[in-house]
Design a protein that fits this description.
This protein is mainly beta. It has one helix at about 70-85, and strands at about 10-15, 15, 20-35, 50-65, 85-90, 100-110, 120-135. Strands 2-1-5-6-7-4-3 form a seven-stranded antiparallel β-sheet, covered by helices on one side.
């Protein structure tokens, strides 16, 4: 089994390729409800054994990169983040597998410093819908 490599990954915002992405991560958050009842005891004792159920699942994408002047993808990201509108974020690995996600950006930041030498950007995207992508035959 071969490891999945980051090199060659393509990120798009509304079908526009996002240049110079240096980091991409997807994370899931789970919310739960405590459904412990008085009858939920540990074996042989008078101690409650907590029980939980999942009540919601959310997914967030975080990405970072080097800011490039006049890049269509970065301009599109900044524009949809500024306007707070729905966007489509697509992530495809070099193997052709990935995800097409619909949602909205919850944060966008550009920063620069003497120590870094270049401006960088970071953004957070809240996923509302997700579709798996497969390589084209």
């Amino acid at each position: 089994m071969a490891e999945r490599r980051f090199a060659g990954t393509v990120i798009k915002v509304n079908d526009k390729v996002l240049a110079k992405v240096t980091s991409f991560s997807r994370s899931k958050d789970f919310n739960e409800a405590d459904v412990t009842g008085a009858e939920d005891l540990t074996e042989g004792g008078q101690i409650l054994q907590q029980k939980f159920i999942s009540v919601s699942v959310g997914e967030t994408v975080t990405l970072e990169g080097i800011a490039i002047s006049e890049d269509e993808g970065q301009s599109e990201l900044a524009d949809v983040a500024d306007r707070g509108v729905e966007a489509v974020l697509e992530q495809t690995g070099p193997d052709g597998y990935g995800y097409k996600m619909t949602g909205y950006f919850t944060s966008y930041e550009e920063s620069g410093s003497i120590s870094e030498g270049v401006y960088t950007f970071s953004a957070t995207f809240r996923v509302n819908e997700k579709e798996a992508l497969e390589p084209e035959p």
